[in-house]
């Protein structure tokens, strides 16, 4: 029997929002969220015009909001956000396709630049596997640093190939919506760009 695997980008593909921003707003609150992005405006401008990388910009934003945060508090917020909020952002057409793959016994893998802490509970609930960016904790606190490279662009392919032997799968599906998914889409026998928008 032919084995099939389906790789899905998360933000913008499965969801209609950026979960990174939604989680920050959820965990930090409206006032800190607005103030933080006012303070971080120069970082966002540098990223917008290509002077700093996606990785650098994202880590600076993450660090500003969460460096020194209690690990327990952070994980509790991530778990609550994941289980109580993500379903609100899922595109109906994406959900239909996920259910179709599951019904047909395909392995489903969420491959995301977002942080695993707020994706993993939702993925576990739905029976999906996950590859994503991980963050560093030390002595019970968030350091503000990423433990892995940002799971974006070529890094998505690197992480996929590290975890799976793609020769084991007769059919590979890939779904994405941005330039950060281009390399992953090239892996698919069946690839779909912005399929649920």
Count of individual helical segments = 9
The counted number of beta strands is: 7
Shape type: globular
Mean pLDDT: 96
CATH superfamily: HAD superfamily/HAD-like
Q: Largest sheet, order of strands side by side? A: 3-2-1-6-7
Helix-strand pattern: EHHHHHHEHEEEHEHE
Rg calculated over all Cα atoms: 17 Å
Largest sheet: 5 strands, parallel
The N- to C-terminal Cα distance equals 33 Å
Strand % is 15-25%
Residue share in helix: 40-55%
- Count of distinct structural domains: 1
CATH topology: Rossmann fold
Uncertain segments of ≥5 residues (pLDDT<50)? none
Q: Can you put this structure into words, describing what you see?
A:
- By secondary structure, this protein is α/β, with parallel strands linked by helices.
- The protein has a single domain (4-193), classed as HAD superfamily/HAD-like (Rossmann fold, 3-Layer(aba) Sandwich).
- The protein is 49% helix and 20% strand.
- The protein has 9 helices and 7 strands.
- It has helices at 19-28, 30-39, 41-48, 54-66, 71-89, 92-103, 116-126, 154-163, 182-185; strands spanning 4-8, 107-115, 129-133, 135-138, 141-146, 171-176, 190-193.
- Strands 3-2-1-6-7 form a 5-stranded parallel sheet, with helices on both faces.
- Helix 7 links the parallel strand 2 and strand 3.
- The radius of gyration is 17 Å and the shape is globular.
Describe the structure in brief.
The chain is an alpha/beta fold. It is built from 9 helices and 7 strands; from the N terminus they run βααααααβαβββαβαβ. The strands form 2 sheets. A 5-stranded parallel sheet has the order 3-2-1-6-7, sandwiched between helices.
């Amino acid at each position: 029997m032919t084995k099939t695997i389906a790789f899905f980008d998360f933000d913008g593909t499965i969801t209609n929002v950026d979960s990174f921003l939604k989680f920050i707003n959820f965990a930090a609150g409206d006032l800190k969220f607005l103030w933080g992005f006012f303070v971080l405006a120069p970082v966002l401008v540098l990223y917008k015009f290509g002077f700093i990388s996606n990785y650098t910009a994202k880590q600076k934003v993450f660090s500003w909001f969460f460096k020194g945060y209690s690990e327990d508090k952070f994980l509790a917020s991530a778990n609550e956000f994941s289980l109580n909020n993500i379903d609100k952002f899922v595109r109906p057409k994406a959900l239909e396709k996920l259910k179709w793959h599951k019904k047909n016994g395909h392995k489903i893998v969420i491959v995301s630049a977002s942080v695993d802490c707020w994706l993993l509970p939702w993925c576990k609930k739905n029976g999906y596997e996950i590859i994503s960016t991980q963050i560093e904790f030390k002595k019970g606190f968030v350091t503000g640093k990423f433990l892995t490279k940002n799971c974006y662009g070529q890094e998505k392919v690197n992480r996929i190939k590290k975890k799976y032997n793609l020769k084991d799968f007769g059919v590979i599906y890939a779904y994405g919506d941005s330039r950060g998914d281009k390399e992953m889409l090239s892996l698919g026998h069946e690839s779909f760009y912005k399929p649920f928008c």
